[in-house]
Amino acid sequence: MNFNPGLSFAGVLLIGAAVIAMPVNAAEIKIISTPAASTALRMAAQDFERATGHKVVIEFSNIATTRKSVDAGEDFDMVVVSPKAIDDLTQQGKVAAGASHNMGRTGLALVGHKGSPRPDIGTVESFKRTLLNARLFAYSATGESGIGFLKVLDKLGITEAMKPRIKSSSNMASLVESGEAEIGITGVGAGLSYTQLEYIGPLPAAVQEYVYLAAGVGANAKAPEAARALLKYLGDPAVIQAMSAKGLEPPAVK
User: Fold this and answer.
1) Sequence spans of domains, the chain
2) Could you read off the pLDDT of 65-92 as tens digits, one per residue?
3) HSE (CB half, 13 Å, CA atoms) of 30?
4) Phi, psi dihedral angles at 54 (to 5 degrees)
5) 9-105+212-253 maps to CATH 3.40.190.10
6) Which of 49, 60, 173, 175 qualifies as a FRET site for 39, CA 20 to 30 Å off?
7) CATH homologous superfamily, domain 106-207
8) Do domains 9-105+212-253 and 106-207 have the same CATH topology?
């Protein structure tokens, strides 16, 4: 399918769903997912629902928590975590063999208090100054974005200088929303989804870190046909390209 840049995001997704959706009865598809691709995944799910009649319910939590939920036996039709986690879950028999798809990657981005001025992060040097000038900088204690952020500090050579200015939390967004932290770091997809925070923008390419994502259908899915239809839909070239505008870069980047 060729991508027409003149089409709206919704229009592209509706076309993709109409072409590849399987003729199954309407069902509810439960997804448990990392929030890293939340904006793109929510948008895709909504258009898939409109095109097919299926209902998609998504529960977002960080990758570590999502893995724990799966390991604890939580029911799901589809899971979105890292490609390695999908491989592990397939070997464990929790994701159906041959029913997974590498969705791509999302970079890291900064968010700030709603309505506050956006700092300059357009270059590595201005980004570095923004970090060093921050009163308090919040990052996820358990998410992949937090791990990536610490790598970024090492790249910049400011790990020691930033120690008094950073705080990890299981809820980074709440620290920024409350004003306790001036700035927070998250995935681009998650950053775009926050309504109570100011989206500042992605990190400069030279120091960017990425969270890689993959989707897999549960081996014991209650709606396996519908989940496989959604998986096929997410792999449609036009849908992949449309989701890249929402913070999820195509899987070909790796």
Assistant:
1) 9-105+212-253, 106-207
2) 888 888 888 899 999 999 999 999 999 9
3) 11
4) -75, 160
5) yes
6) 175
7) Periplasmic binding protein-like II (3.40.190.10)
8) yes
